[in-house]
Prior knowledge:
The complex is a heterodimer of chains A (about 150) and B (about 400). Chain A is mainly beta and about 150 residues long. Chain A is built from one helix and nine strands; from the N terminus they run βαββββββββ. Chain A has one domain (about 20-145). Chain A is about 5% helix and about 35% strand. Chain A starts with 11 loop residues before the first strand and ends with a strand. Chain B has one domain: Thiolase/Chalcone synthase (Peroxisomal Thiolase, Chain A, domain 1, 3-Layer(aba) Sandwich). Chain B has helices at about 30-45, 65-75, 95-105, 120-125, 150-165, 170-185, 200-205, 230-235, 275-280, 300-305, 315-320, 320-325, 340, 350-360, 390-395, and strands at about 10-20, 25, 55-60, 80-85, 110-120, 135, 205-210, 210, 220-230, 240-250, 290-295, 370-375, 385-390. In chain B, a hairpin with a 1-residue loop joins strand 7 and strand 8. In chain B, helix 6 crosses helix 10. At the A-B interface, strand 1, strand 5 and strand 7 of A face strand 6, helix 5 and strand 7 of B. Strand 1 (about 10-15) of chain A pairs parallel with strand 6 (about 135) of chain B. Zinc ion (ZN) binds near residues 40 and 43 of chain A.
Amino acid sequence: MSDYVLPAGLPAPVPARDGLDRPYWEGTRRHELWVQRCPGCGTWQWGPEWNCHGCRSFAIGWEQVAPEGVLYSWQRPWHPVHGALADAVPYTVVLVELPHAGGIRMVGNLLGDPMQPFAIGDRVEAVFEDHDDSPTPFTLVQWRVVR
Amino acid sequence: MGELEHSLRGRVAVVGVGETTYYKRGQSPDPEFVLVLKAILAACADAGIDPSTIDGFCSYSNDRNTPARLSAALGCEVIRYSNMQWGGGGGGAAAAVQNACAAVLSGSADCVVAYRGLAQGQFGRFGQGARSSTISGAAALTVPYGVMSPAQTYAMRTTRLFHDHGISPDTLKAVSLAAYHHAQNNPRAVMYGRPLTPEAYDASRWITEPFHLYDVCLENDGAAAVIVMSAERARDLSDRPVYVLGAQQGGPRRSGVAGHNQPDYVTSSLKPVVPRLYEQAGVTPADVDVVQSYENFTGAVVMSLIEGGFCTYESANEVLTFDNLIAPSGKLPLNTSGGNLAECYMHGLGLVIEAVRQVRGTSTNQVPGATVSYVNAGPMVEVVSAAIFGSAEVLG
Ligand SMILES: [Zn+2]
């Protein structure tokens, strides 16, 4: 029995061979949230891109941000689309906006009872979910409503 | 009249349309390539042309059936145009017709077929999740959180549509019920003879909230084809050709970024497409008699109709009712073949054909006197498309 929101068996995220998203995934292992920010024009950017979509600079950098945000949208899947989810439905998927990082958004799961009351606009905080028992250990960024 | 209005309107016409029998997913007796051949041959027969007349091929969504193989099998002497529209889902259904028109107008080819074939039994399903043990790149931002099917990829836009604009779930239900209603008059429809009641809709299982089962498109096997030629040649073939008034494709700024970070999230992606389409076609939404709006998910249909100018965010709940959406009596007849929800999921090309049929006056849910017919394809994907067809009366 694990403490994971979703059972083990879903595809494990691994940094892409091209290195583009490595600072993000390495950051999650340290329980830190790192996203792209352009040192030239200040544009926040997510997901990772090869250049700044604000000013086209290739010198896009990374910045650590507070692991918190606001619930922007959500869905509750009931139909299991993967074998590992057969006994895990329903579960709640949230889209979290980070107002302190230019309004970038992140997809994750909401911790707790899938039928718990929550609403768009609720404040949420990140919970780093370590999968140390995976053949390729990784850490997911899950979310919890701040009550 | 602006410059755009002279670009396409009335210069190219649909001369033939063809469809195979539409099957439930995995039930086609024919392989996909044979389905596509049969659809193209049916379109040739409809047009009254020899199949070897075809010299151009346009498809979309990485269709597996290449012009080189099709051309050989059709006995064509030459390929003059071979074109693939980028983008996933059915965003390219109207764009394939647009690209075919572009080939004709540019003098690249004379007789161009837009086609799409799907045999998901042969090649695997869309709604299934990732099967690998690891995942990288953009998909790594969603798949580990149980977001992998198309419905899951797009559901949260509809949740936010409800929140931002007060769209009611009943409006999504009306879209679904209208499609099933129309399918009951359409013997081609997979859901012919299988009506849907409001009670059955309400009682249906959630795929992912806010989508019930009946808010989600079917999965089918089959093929469809649309042949275009210059208006002059079309008039040699038929007394009543269906003219292309306009056809456009496009997407909003950064529509293809990862992890649900599109700057404009609650959109069908049609916003930049529609103004140019109407300008090119020389008509307004008020001139449109009947609408085919691609249903991957009902929430996207509502976004498409609003962005297509058929109602506003404020009026959507009042305008998009079952009574208004059904032919022949409704004010805004929608998806009159049953569409992707109840006729067949042919990645939207079936909707294009139904739009043509309405101008011909041969729909199984005919809108009396329809002369201007609108179709949009693939809402919410990165690049979407739309087209408007019209009769000779519209050209004046
Ligand atoms: Zn920049």
